[in-house]
Amino acid sequence: MREILNGIYTWAWFSEIKGFDFNGWLILSEDGNVMVDPPLMRPEDEEHVHQLGAPRHLIVTNRDHDREVTRYRNRYGAQTWIHELDAPLVDIPIDRTFKHSDWLPVGIEIIHLPNNKSPGESALLLHRTSNVLILGDALIGDPPGELTLLPPEKYADIIKVRDGIKVLLNYEYGPVLTSDGVSILDNGRGAIEAFLKKSK
């Protein structure tokens, strides 16, 4: 586990099938830490979480990122959050649901991405001195330095998916942290603009 941005820690589990990392996030806050899309942690990562403070909340960005949520929900006694459209589609215990424009703990604003792979696909806009965007499956960091979609067969309508991603340009942020692949720490918004321009 390492600190990728001030107060934001990450760890990864490499998927041999996908060929890239599944990333988890731990956001520190005096009001209670938040964990996002957690893959399996190594023992040393779990020890690091113990040192930093157990999460009070677990946020799932889409129905396919339940990953190890149940394990860590039980371990830390954390509340699990997911978009209201995805809540009926998962087999994990859900404590709270959210929708577009809701505000969650530690200053996270929910951005719902319509017509995506998952009906409740959500981005998390972390409001700080420099805002940070956290993506689930809306875009992945593969190859490194670029943002792209998952394979076309994952979507019902690829054109509507691209149009739905345009909502991200209505917000201001710098880094874009991806739960799949390699994050963009410098001008992440520009990387999203480049993706949309290239995919026209």
Which structural class best describes the helix and strand composition? alpha/beta
- Beginning-to-end CA distance, first to last residue: 37 Å
Determine Rg (CA atoms, Å): 16 Å
* Number of E-type strands: 12
Q: Please, how many helices?
A: 4
Mean pLDDT: 95
Strand arrangement, major sheet: 1-2-3-4-5-6-7
**Low-pLDDT windows of residues:** none
In short:
The protein is α/β, with parallel strands linked by helices and 200 residues long.
Walk me through the topology.
Blueprint: E1 2-5, E2 8-15, E3 20-27, E4 33-36, H1 43-52, E5 55-59, H2 69-76, E6 79-83, E7 96-98, E8 103-104, E9 108-112, E10 122-126, E11 132-135, H3 158-165, E12 176-178, H4 188-198
Parallel strand pairs: 4-5, 5-6, 6-7, 11-12
Antiparallel strand pairs: 1-2, 2-3, 3-4, 8-9, 9-10, 10-11
